[in-house]
Amino acid sequence: METNQLLGLLGLLLGATGGLFGLWWGRKKAAENRGLDERYTSITTKALANAWKITLVALYIHFIFVIFGMELAAIEVVGTLLMIHLTGWAISTVYYNFKL
Hints:
Layout: H1 3-32, H2 38-67, H3 74-99
Keywords: Membrane, Transmembrane, Transmembrane helix
Transmembrane segments: 6-26, 47-68, 74-98
Protein name: DUF2178 domain-containing protein
């Protein structure tokens, strides 16, 4: 493997590890402050459902691109859908935090 490949793999592993640690640490601190209540559960459920709806729309747009003849590599599609899903989840969470 080349250096760039090793650095990319290291970045993926460190990113996943950091994300999981942040999730664990945030939930631990929220539990200490009684932040994991019904409101949190409602916001999380609604935000995730909304993110999947956004992802479904993006998936249909990708299908339309393919029908019109655009050639897309699998990694491009998966990466784009992942970014759209995570962004939709984050924006939906912020929206429902202010709305509820």
